[in-house]
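Protein fold
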Amino acid sequence: MGRWLEHTVTTEVKAPVDRVWAVWSDLEAMPRWMRWIESVKTLEDPDLTDWTLAAQGFRFQWKARITTRVEAQQLHWESVGGLPTKGAVRFYPEADDRTVVKLSVTYELPGVLAPLMEPTILGGIVTRELQANLDRFRDLVESDYAVSS
């Protein structure tokens, strides 16, 4: 069994919470702003998704299940196969046109990486990447990006 690492990042988006929620809920579009995510596919059960992560020559796949969905407030998930991971994203309306997004991701350090990387170094890399991803998400929401239906 590997070591679990947790990362939390936040950003403020200049958009109403309903728009922020709508863009986040378009899970299959996540590779547009999550650099290490190669693909997300929604399965027949809309609470199940297949994920592929590709970074630094490594590729990991997992299936995730949405465990909690509160419209325009929060979304929680956990893996049900593949890379052990879980997380939550929360949306905090600060005003009619501003929303704070807080993303928390927890995962088990894959055994293949454990001997290669000090968890504190890997943790810093992952936290910086998650923050950059969330900032790209903010930029996408604030642009004229149209959510696919």
